[in-house]
Structures are given as C-alpha cells and as structure tokens.
C-alpha cells in the first residue's frame, strides 16, 4: 500500500493540534477575592442582599460563587468572598451584564432606600498555584472556621516561598490537623504578582488552630525545611506584616462551609 504524501496529512494534523496541546497551555481560571466594608449598621442588610439576590444573579451571569465569610472578630464590618471566572475577559462581560440586569437594579435600589450598604470595596485577582489542592466548594458535616493567610515575599523570593510550601509546608500542615483548602498567587499582570501568596486553611476552631500551629512550629522537619530555605537569602517573608492571618466564619448562604 502506498503511503499518503506528507502534505496530505497536514490538514488533519492542524485539525487535531488543539486537542493535542498540553493541558498546561490552557488558560488558568481567574479567581477574585472581594472585600466589602459595610456602612455602619448595614452588614445584616448587605448579607440579606447577597443571600436573596446577588448569588443567584452572579450565577445567572456566569460568575461562580465559592465562599462568603465574615471575620470572627469583625471590627471593620467586613464581608469577604471568593468568586471565579473562566478568564479576565469573561469577568468583564459578566459584571457588565450583571450590572445591567433589571433584577439587580431593583434589588440594589430596594436595599438602599434607607442609605447605601457599602462604604468601600477591595478586589484582588488570583490564580491557583501549581501545588494547590482542588478548590472544592463543599459543606462540611461539622462546623469549622477558616483562616485566610496572606504572605508578602521578600524581593525575588516568591518562587522559593512557593517551593517551601510545595515541598514541605502543606504536608506538615496536614500532619497537625489543618486542612489545606486552596493556595493562590496574584494573577499575572496584576499588582504584587511577584510577591503575594494567599491561602485558606480550615480548622475545627480557633483553639484547634492555635494547637496545630504550636505543634507545627516545633516540628523538626519544619525547622529543617525553614533553615534550608533561608540559608542563602534570609527570611522568605517581609519582616513587617509579612504574614497576616484572619479567622473567618462562613455566612449562612456560603457554598463553602
């Protein structure tokens, strides 16, 4: 049987090329952490608007709801939540259509008849690290608290910080009863993409978290890993506010609990 000329295979190869492309080339999902600072006395009303209207409208417009929290010690009247999109363009389109939705406009107007609900909004775009567990939006059978931890890496050390988490820290966290929920770096092209690590842990309680970290910090494997990672360039996190922790509790309407 005569072989087909190579040129005859070219269209077929071109057709199959996208399917043969490595999975790593697929565009990473874009996550967003949004922090709302409620106006004085308006946090309950803000939560009601999310519970009764916003989450359903987000989903309608292609925004995936993952988790909604309030800090356990909520001095700043905050709501902290996490949503995601296929990519940055999808995010832009979703918020445009959401903002123009008549149902949203009505819910927004009705909720603010007695004054605005939000004083300030902060946003941070995030991408999962290569070592992050799959971010499972699930409800635990038992009550638990979540810990949002933000690390600021020293110059040129974000890669080393990620390596330490990838090779050592996650396993040691699990050893001491902490649940690794998700790990992010700031999305490429965004401010601080070269320095921030943001992640969520789950604990049975704040007391359980304190006990877990006490054991973790004394662990011989952790002490060795930390020493080895800092031998050449010193601390991998900034001395001032380089590690910030905030304990959160899920709202009653949060998909993740």
Helix-strand layout with pairing:
Layout: H1 6-20, E1 30-38, H2 43-60, E2 64-71, E3 78-85, H3 88-100, H4 102-111, E4 118-128, E5 145-152, H5 158-175, E6 179-186, E7 196-203, H6 206-218, H7 220-230, E8 243-250
Antiparallel strand pairs: 1-3, 1-4, 2-3, 2-8, 4-6, 5-7, 5-8, 6-7
Helix pairs in contact: 2-4, 5-7
Structure description:
The chain has 257 residues and is an alpha+beta fold. Helix content is 38%, strand content 26%. It contains seven helices and eight strands. It has helices at residues 6-20, 43-60, 88-100, 102-111, 158-175, 206-218, 220-230, and strands spanning 30-38, 64-71, 78-85, 118-128, 145-152, 179-186, 196-203, 243-250. The chain has an eight-stranded antiparallel beta barrel, surrounded by four helices. A hairpin with a 6-residue loop joins strand 2 and strand 3 (78-85). Helix 2 (43-60) packs antiparallel against helix 4 (102-111) and helix 5 (158-175) packs antiparallel against helix 7. The protein is globular. The relative contact order is 0.17.
Can you give keywords for this protein?
single chain, 257 residues, 8 strands
Give a short summary of the structure.
The protein is α+β, with helices and mostly antiparallel strands.
Major sheet: 8 strands, antiparallel, barrel
Please count the helical segments. Answer: 7
Q: Within the largest sheet, what's the order of strands?
A: 1-3-2-8-5-7-6-4
Question: N- to C-terminal separation?
Answer: 63 Å
Estimated share of beta-strand residues: 25-35%
Outline type: globular
Low-confidence stretches: 1-25
Query: Roughly how much helix do the residues carry, as a percent range?
Result: 25-40%
N to C succession of SSEs: HEHEEHHEEHEEHHE
Determine Rg (CA atoms, Å): 22 Å
Give the structural class: alpha+beta
Mean pLDDT value: 92
Number of strands: 8
């Amino acid at each position: 049987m005569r072989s087909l000329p190579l040129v005859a295979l070219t269209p077929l190869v071109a057709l199959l090329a996208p399917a043969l492309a490595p999975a790593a080339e697929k565009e990473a999902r874009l996550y967003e952490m949004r922090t709302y600072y409620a106006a004085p006395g308006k946090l309950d009303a803000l939560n009601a608007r999310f519970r009764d209207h916003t989450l359903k409208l987000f989903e309608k417009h292609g925004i995936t709801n993952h988790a909604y929290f309030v800090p356990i010690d909520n001095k700043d009247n905050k709501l902290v939540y996490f949503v995601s999109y296929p990519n940055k363009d999808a995010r832009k389109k979703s918020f445009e259509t959401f903002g123009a939705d008549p149902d949203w406009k009505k819910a927004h107007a009705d909720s603010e008849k007695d004054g605005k609900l939000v004083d300030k909004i902060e946003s941070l775009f995030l991408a999962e690290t290569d070592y992050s567990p799959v971010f499972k939006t699930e409800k635990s059978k038992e009550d638990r608290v979540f810990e949002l931890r933000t690390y600021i890496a020293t110059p040129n050390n974000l890669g080393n910080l990620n390596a330490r988490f990838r090779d050592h820290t996650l396993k040691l966290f699990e050893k001491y009863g902490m649940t690794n929920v998700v790990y992010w770096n700031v999305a490429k092209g965004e401010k601080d993409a070269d320095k921030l690590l943001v992640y969520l842990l789950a604990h049975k309680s704040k007391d359980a978290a304190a006990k877990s970290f006490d054991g973790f910090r004394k662990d011989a494997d952790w002490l060795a890993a930390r020493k080895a990672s800092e031998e050449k360039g010193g601390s991998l996190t900034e001395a001032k506010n380089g590690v910030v922790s905030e304990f959160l509790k899920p709202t009653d309407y949060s998909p993740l609990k």
